[in-house]
Amino acid sequence: MAINYQSIAQKLKQARELQSIMVETVSEDTGITVDRIHFIEVGQVRPSGDEVLILANYYRHDLRDFLDDKRPAPFEQTDLLYRRHGNDFSPNDRRSIQEFLYLCEIESELESDLDIKKLRFPFSPQGKYYKGHGENAARALRVFLGYAPNEIPRNLFADFRKIGCHVFRRRLENSDISGLYIEHPIAGHCLLVNYDEDIYRQRFSVGHEAAHAIFDSSDSVVVSFRQREGRYSEADLKEIRANRFASCYLMPPDQLPSVSTWTTDQAVHWAQQFRVSTESLSYALMEAKLIDKRTAQVIRSVKVHSSEKIDPEAPESLTDRQKERRLELLKRGLSTYYVNLCFEAHQRDLISAGRLGEAFLADHAETREISILFGRAIQYDA
């Protein structure tokens, strides 16, 4: 295969600029001189194979993104994202998003290599009533996944992975962003949930982003803002539809309680039953016309204590130290599903120990620490 060095130069520059990384920072972190990076980016010198490998790893891209011009364009979605919402993402958040997409690509490839089948959820909205789209899709998906009418979904992250979504959580500096959806040219449906939110809000957010995957994949990129931030428009029908889907999936309208007089204790109890925030519960009850605005204020006046909220990817069976470490990994995007997937691929000799570390965004020591935490072995080449 002939190597197009001009294309490599352009892609390396674009990868750096999309993440808002200064040349000086790249130089300090990689050991490649500032002048050398500049000359590579303008096409004045040809990068060595090692330099391309180092920079691809540093920018969290598959090496093939730079070498193979027949591979789907790796920057199209992020370029679109930042042209639409560039001011909303700090350099650190741009870095986090690129790492998220990198993990989505790896997850997609490993699922294919391990022959993990996904379910295709066939749903086509009818008519122009967007709230109805969301409610009907939520009902249909619950049936599709085998839920009983009165059964409350506990692990939404797993549910949406079953239908082909790549779901990752990552803390973003911009706390006004609840999540985003990207239709990736290789990985497909990619959902990022801001870990800055508490776990019950994250459950709602992943449902919201899954709705964008079901209904709005033609938009390529969707950023979801918190309602309180002021960027959310009540006239935005797609956002209304996504919220309705998430609400009905978590809290089926026919399962909402009819309580004559709501107390704060009842509000906490029912929010915990559905594993949602009291705010989400109040909106669902109002939509069902089971409460008035005054009662909604009573329900929203209390919250489920953070210590009582259950994260399905950090089970209670773990010790406090193990749980703390699992949660730290989740903040960086390393879900339990993803970590186990990588170890399974490694055990089957599909990826090396070195590639395992790259997949975990970790050095040798941390990769070993993760293996101990998950009770998995690492096989090193002799």
TrEMBL record:
Residue span(s) of domain HTH cro/C1-type? 12-66
The protein's matches in InterPro entries, at most eight in alphabetical order, are given as: Cro/C1-type_HTH, IrrE_HExxH, Lambda_DNA-bd_dom_sf, Rad_response_metalloprotease
Q: Look up the domain of life of the source.
A: Bacteria
Q: Name one GO molecular function term.
A: DNA binding
What the entry lists under Pfam families is as follows: Peptidase_M78
The text of the family note is:
Belongs to the short-chain fatty acyl-CoA assimilation regulator (ScfR) family.
This protein is called what? Zn-dependent peptidase ImmA (M78 family)
Query: Which species is this UniProt entry from?
Result: Desulfoprunum benzoelyticum
Q: Which lineage do the record's taxonomy fields give for this organism?
A: Bacteria, Pseudomonadati, Thermodesulfobacteriota, Desulfobulbia, Desulfobulbales
